[in-house]
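User: quick one, fold this
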Amino acid sequence: MNAPIPPPQSNSQPVAGLLIWPALLAALVTGFGSLWLTLGMDLRACPLCLYQRACVFCVIAILTVGVLARERHPKLLALVSLGPAAAAVAVCAYQNYLEQIGKLECPAGIANIGTAPQQALAAEAIVLVILLLASVSRAMTTGLALLLGLALGGLMIKTAPPPPDAPTKPYSGPFTTCRPPYIAPTQ
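Assistant:
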C-alpha cells in the first residue's frame, strides 16, 4: 500500500498565504472602485479602462476561487494572478502616459483626488506589488508570469480602438469619459 504524498513544505509558504488575503482585498477595492466610477459617478469607461477592469476582475476571480477551494499553494495563486495584474498596470501606465503628454484628458476620480486613471494606476500597482511579494521566491516563474502579463498588456494597447480625433470645437455636455482634449487654434 502506497503512503499518500505529503504536500510540499516551504518556510515562505505561510507568508505567501497571508499575502493572498490583502491581495484579494486590494483587488476587490480596485474592482469596486472601478465600478463606482461608472455606477456611482456616471462616468463611461473608455476601452483602456475596460481592459484594466477586465484584468482586475480576473485577479479577483482567481484569488476568490483559490481561497474558497482552500488552495494549499498560495504562491501558485499569486503566480496565476500576476499575469492579469501586470497587464492591468501596463495598460493603465500607457493611459496615464497619454494623459501626461496631452493626447487624452480623463475625468476626476473618486473624491476628486487625481484623475480616474491615476487612481487606477495606484490601486492596480498595490495589487501587483502584493502579488509579487507573495510569489517572489519563485523568481524564474515570477519573472515569466510578469513578462507574460506585460506582453498581454502590450497586445491590449496595440489592439485597442484608437481614440477619436481631437475635436475642432469645444466639447458640450458633461465630461464623463477619457477623450482627446480640445485645443483652441492659435491666431
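User: anything notable?
Assistant: The mean pLDDT is 91.
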